[in-house]
Amino acid sequence: MVLCLLLAGMAPSQAADSAVVLIYHRFGEDVHPSTNVRLEQFDQQIALLREGGFTVMPLAEIVSAVRSGAPLPDRTVAITIDDAYLSVYNEAWPRLRDAGFPFTLFVATDPVDRGVGGYMSWDQIRELRDAGVAIGSQTATHPHMAARDRASNLREISVSNRRFVEELGAQPDLFAYPYGEASTEVMGLVAEAGFSAAFGQHSGAMDRHSPQFYLPRFPVNETYGDAERFRRVANTLSIPIEGITPQDPLVDDVNPPAFGFSVVEEIPRLAELACYHSQAGQVDVQRLGALRFEIRFKQPFSTGRSRLNCTVPAKDGRWRWFGTQFYVPRR
To answer: What class is the 242-328 domain?
Structure first.
C-alpha cells in the first residue's frame, strides 16, 4: 500500500529500479568505533535522509518491489540494524520514530535469552515490534556460518526460529548473515528454512539481478559515517550484474578465485568501471567482449573476510556500485 501511494504521485523520471540498504549496529557507544556511529553523526544522517530527496521505505516492501521488477522512487533507502544492542532501544529507535523512518532489526536470539549486558530484552524487542519495527533473524549465537558444518547451521536456524515463535509469535521473514559471511550451502539452508531473502554486509545497491539470498547492504560506522560519504552511499545506483563466477563467496580450494561477472546491459561510462579489493587495493579488470568482465587477483586472500567493490560514475555526481564479500576459512 505504501509503495502504491508513493508511485501514484511519481513522475516517470523519478522511477528507479534499485535501492540502497544501510546497516547499523551501535549508537553512541564510542568504545566500539568499528560498529558504532556517534550520535551527532546519526542525527546528521537522519537530517540528510529527511531533507535530501530520499524515500525511506520498509525493507520488506523494497525486497518485494525489486523482486517483481516494480519501480521504486528514486533514492529509495532502507535502514537495517544488526545485533539488538541496547543503544538501538535507547538512542536509535527514538530518533527514527520521531523522523517517521521504518527500520528492520536483525536479532541473534541467544544473547537476548541469556540477558547479556548491553543487549535488548525480549520485552523491549516486543515493544519495538508492536510499534511497527520489523524483526529479522540473525541465527541463535551469531556464528561464522560459512565456516560451520551443515548440521550446526541447521541447529542455529532451528533454535532461533523456535525462540522467535515463542517470544514473538512468528518466525521472521528476512535473514541477515552474521558478519555478512555466507556460502552457497548456507544460502540454500536459509532458503529451505522459509526465509524470503537474506542480506550480507557487502556494499552496493540492490536490484532485480541481485542474488535473493545474498543481498548487499552498506555498512555505516564512525569511520564511514561522515556526511559526504553518507550522501554518496545513499545516492548510489546499482550496476546490473549477472553471471557471477564463482557463485560461492566461500574461498576454499582455489585461492585466489578467478572472479568474473557480466553487466546485463550497456550503461553510460561503463568503460570507466574500476574495482578495488580490501586486501589488494585497485585490481586489474579485463573486459572480455562487450559486457563480460574478469578479475585476476595476484595474491591469495588472507584468512577471514575481504571485500571487492566495483564502481562506475553516473550522472549528477552519483555512482553505480557493485560489491561482494569473500570468506577464507582457517585451516
So the answer is: mainly beta
| Domain residue spans of the chain | 2-237, 242-328
pLDDT digits (tens, 9 = 90+) for 112-144: 999 999 999 999 999 999 999 999 999 999 999
Q: Do domains 2-237 and 242-328 have the same CATH topology?
A: no
**pLDDT tens per residue across span 62-110:** 999 999 989 999 999 999 999 999 999 999 999 999 999 999 999 999 9
CATH of domain 2-237: 3.20.20.370
Per-residue HEC secondary structure of the chain comes to CHHHHHHHCCCHHHEECEEEEEEECEECCCCCCCCEECHHHHHHHHHHHHHCCCEECCHHHHHHHHHHCCCEECCEEEEEEECCEHHHHHHHHHHHHHHCCCCEEEECHHHHHCCCCCECCHHHHHHHHHCCCEEEECCCCCCCHHHCCHHHHHHHHHHHHHHHHHHHCCCCCEEECHHHCCCHHHHHHHHHCCCCEEECCCCCCEECCCCCCCECCEECCCCCCCHHHHHHHHCCEECCEEEEECCCCECCCCCCCEEEEEECCCCCCHHHCEEEECCCEEECEEEECCCEEEEECCCCCCCEEEEEEEEEECHHHCEEEEEEEEEECCC
